[in-house]
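Lab manual, section 2.4: Encoding a predicted structure.

Procedure: take the sequence of the chain (348 residues), apply the prediction step described in section 2.3, and record the output as structure tokens. A sample record is shown.
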Amino acid sequence: MTTDIPRRAGRTAALVLALLIGTSQSLGAHAQTAAPTDALQHVDPQLRALANRPTVLTDEIIRKAHAAPPPLPAPSQDPPVVQKTIKGLDGQPDVSIYVVNAKPGAARPGILHTHGGGYVLGSAKQYLWLIQPIAKALDVTIVSVEYRLAPETTYKGSVADNYAGLKWMYDHASELGVDRKRLAVMGESAGGGHAALLALEARRRGEIPLAFEVLLYPMLDDRTGSTRQPAPYAGRFVWTAPQNRVGWRAFLGTEPGTDKVPAEAVPARTKTLAGLPPAYIAVGDIDLFVEEDVAYAHRLIEAGVPVELHVFRGGYHGFNMLVPDAAVSKLYEADLYDALRRALDIRK
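Recorded output:
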């Protein structure tokens, strides 16, 4: 695995890279091979250094990752981060959350964040480096949920954890400095899938009005890579169809792409998207998820939900995290910040 990672991303980005593409030898992965030249031609030139062909993700690798998670540096306190344990939903265990940039008594937007990792890897703590700059730049409070991972739990457990985090944030808005009318959900990859599921769950329960949902290269459709094959050159880097099947199988508790898959577990299988909050969707044009994300945006439009869709040329899965100093990554960040400012009425 290449070590040419921008200093801005630092050691945590290297860890994210290892988790995304399964290259950490401590997890039992195999050595990587060079990326095929024809596929590399579709990658933004500034992203090619980290465009390695991914290794295999297996149930055994997942078990080892859960049994011995890699050590992490203490999070920065700029802006402040506080870890809390909150009560889960009825019949569910307590939930750990990270509260970023709380300002009691203020009335600012709030974002409930769900981290990525294919539904089977990652943690809220590992993604603090990604969300702290957003909280600081926009002066918002962000709560990130340490939801339970598959296969230890299926979608039911993690959705319950995330909703418990959202409800806690809503109920404690005053002490967090959050305006309940400017509350959003946001996530990357599987976290984007969780953000979409959370918006659907909030709609179903009717307790918490959401102002915005931010779905960043979200994992929305179990059929991708199983019964539906990706477009040429999509999904050749970082996260592939075989990995996708492993993640969805663990999350669903059944084989993806079949008629046994519960629609409530898969945003793309939801019968109607009407009544959801306005959405922002961003994805690279060679990401495995590009077609399902564009299709979801189209369905939102058909349902009368305001949506903004950004497709970034030459971007593979997670490109903004892996090469944050690339021009396309800076464009991705600027577009995201602009969308949040407009949707949540942020004047900063």
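Check your result against the sample. Residues 239 and 317 are 6 Å apart (CA to CA).
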